[in-house]
Amino acid sequence: MRIASDVAAMELTPPLQAAASPETANAKPALYQPADQPSDQSYSLFTTKALDDSIANIQDGYNRIVHPDSWGGFVHGTIELSGALVPALYADMGANLQQGAQWVNNKVNGIPVVQNLVKPIGDSFNGFGAALGDVVDGFDQSANDFGSAIEHLSHGDFKQAAESAYDSGKDVVKGVYDAGKDVVSSVVDSVKDFLSW
């Protein structure tokens, strides 16, 4: 009996309507340092939180457009989808910069003098890629929250609409703040790598 009810519950799952969460399942930290990787690790395409969030918002926005539950849901999906397209491109660029920088840093790791000259450059590109991802992720999440505010308004929920509008502004500020932290972190790593003679 219990198995049958579990199967029935699984079959009744609603379509994807959740907003992209900052805690995506396969997200890596915004600044994924080469020092975190074993030297024998083979590199494959990795993803970042910004890229995960953009892809989730594209999928969710598309679902809201194709299967709207109200006119507000359709508008939410349109804003969410269109607000995630450009950030996805820049998030991918940032991830590729990080991956390339980490690959170079891994290749020169342990080579005297060369690593002290090359790793600071790699750290800079890694930090720039992470900062780029943070900034575009802030705008991506802001678009989602702005669309959510309109959807709440369409349902007459003014309190939730105000909270979503507030979150929309907060997302941009948080993205810029996180980008600043990544830049500072990459400068510190660059100095450490340069001075580790």
Number of distinct helices: 5
Helix/sheet category: mainly alpha
- What's the SSE pattern? HHHHH
List how many beta strands DSSP finds: 0
Helix content: over 70%
Shape estimate: elongated
Largest beta-sheet details: none
**What is the rounded distance between the termini?**
68 Å
Mean pLDDT: 82
The proportion of residues in beta strands is under 5%
The unreliable regions are 1-45
Rg, Å, rounded: 21 Å
How many discrete structural domains?
Answer: 1
Characterise the protein shown here.
- It is a single chain.
- This protein has 197 residues and is an all-alpha fold.
- The protein has one domain.
- The protein is built from five helices and no strands.
- Helix 2 runs antiparallel to helix 3, helix 3 packs antiparallel against helix 4 (114-154) and helix 4 packs antiparallel against helix 5 (158-195).
- The longest helix has 41 residues, at 114-154.
Highlighted features:
197 residues, single chain
What's this model, at a glance?
This protein is mainly alpha-helical. It has 5 helices and no strands. The protein has one domain (47-195).
List the helices and strands and how they pair.
Blueprint: H1 2-11, H2 49-66, H3 71-108, H4 114-154, H5 158-195
Helix pairs in contact: 2-3, 2-4, 3-4, 4-5
